[in-house]
Amino acid sequence: MKKLKALIKIIIFSLSCHLFASDIDHPVAGAEVEDLLGAMEKVEGSSYLVEGASENHLEDEKFLSSNKNTDQDFIFKSNLEEVSINSDPRREFKDFGYNVPGSVERQDSYGEIDKAKMAKGFRKVSEGAFNLSFIKNDFSYTSTNDVINRTIGNGPKGKSGGFLIVRNDSYIARSFLLNTYWSLGGGVGYSSGNGIFIDNSVSDAVFKFWQFPLDLGIGLEIPLYTWFKIAGTAGGSGLVLMQNRSDFESNEKGKRKYQFSPGYFASAQFKINLTGFGSDAAYDAFTSSQITNISMNVEARQVKYSGFSDAITLSGTSFGVGFTFEYL
Predict the structure, then answer these.
(1) Which domains can be identified in the chain, with CATH numbers?
(2) Are 307 and 261 in contact (CB under 8 A)?
(3) Which residues contact 265 (CB under 8 A, 6 or more apart)?
(4) Phi, then psi, of 112 in degrees rounded to 5
(5) For residues 314 and 239, what is the distance between their CA atoms, to the nearest angstrom?
(6) Beta-strand pair 256-273/228-245
(7) What are phi and psi of 172, to 5 degrees?
(8) Exposure string over 236-245, b if 16+ CB within 10 A, otherwise e
(9) What pairs with residue 232 in β-bridges?
(10) Which runs of E-coded beta strand occur in the chain?
């Protein structure tokens, strides 16, 4: 019995020694743990941080960005150079498209727009202008026996009618005192009257005169404050004259007669800027259609065409009214 107890003690002692020896290889709490952590290599950089920026700096950037505009994704800006903006002043307004800041939902996220300042800005950067004019036909027609004037001008049933002219001006240069532009335009004119015999008796035949001018010129424009402009345009022109008479059958020779003559034209316009009287009107016109100015015009047109196949000369000055729509 004594031998059995002694054997059990020996076995227990041997197991205790073995467990103690195996624990030596494991770190225990204390200074040795701190030394092991201090000896660990530092991880250089991180895939989630901008190089050279701390986590706190990154979070600050996100916080500032979210306060500025919640609709935009966060963009890392720490080490990015600023992108240069096109110096073209039209870029400021073209980038708006048809929805300028303040015209969309959530307007509280934008500052209040100074409409007067904005209107003053885009008036200066128009790329061109579209003109629509009506010119009364008070021009003089020189012809054999003065037959045309006697028919459409002084005839008892004469209707001198007028010209509808459309023109596009493309600005070459703009400044505070003077603007220059290329001009291309065309139109249609109509006059009619009953024929006159040599003894001044009136014929039953109706003569219709269709006229198609085509203009190419250069122009100057002088801005007078915000409300008025003076513009002058001149250049070469051509005119197609078509004569139609009712006393001929539709397929009969001489029913229609076409003639063409080269010539010149000159136009003067006094423009009253309708959108210049109120910033709201200018702002609304621009945001809806990118029209920078709308003007009502009093116009004068001078022409001369003398190269027709018949002995006809069309010349003189006539007046009318129109509208100009400047656009970006």
Answers:
(1) 55-109 (no CATH), 120-327 (2.40.160.20)
(2) yes
(3) 213, 215, 217, 234, 235, 236, 237, 301, 302, 303
(4) -65, 130
(5) 10
(6) antiparallel
(7) -90, -50
(8) ebbbbbebeb
(9) 220, 268
(10) 128-136, 140-142, 159-174, 179-196, 202-224, 228-245, 256-273, 291-305, 313-327
The pLDDT value recorded for residue 5 is 57
Q: What is the C-alpha separation between 272 and 231, in angstroms, rounded?
A: 11
Single-letter residue type at 311? A
Round to whole Å and give the CA distance between 217 and 67: 54
Per-residue CA distances from 187 to 127, 150, 184, 320 (Å) = 23, 24, 11, 14
Structure confidence by residue, pLDDT tens digits, 31-70: 444 444 444 455 454 444 445 544 555 455 554 555 544 4
Instruction: List for the chain the helix, strand, coil content (%; round to 5).
Output: 25, 40, 30
Q: What's the CA gap between 19 and 17, in Å, rounded?
A: 6
Total residue length of the chain = 328
C-alpha distances out from residue 95 to 86, 279, 280, 285, 307, Å: 11, 20, 20, 16, 50
pLDDT digits (tens, 9 = 90+) for 112-128: 456 666 666 666 677 89
Q: d(Cα 320, Cα 33) in Å, to the nearest integer?
A: 99
Q: Which amino acid is at 244?
A: N
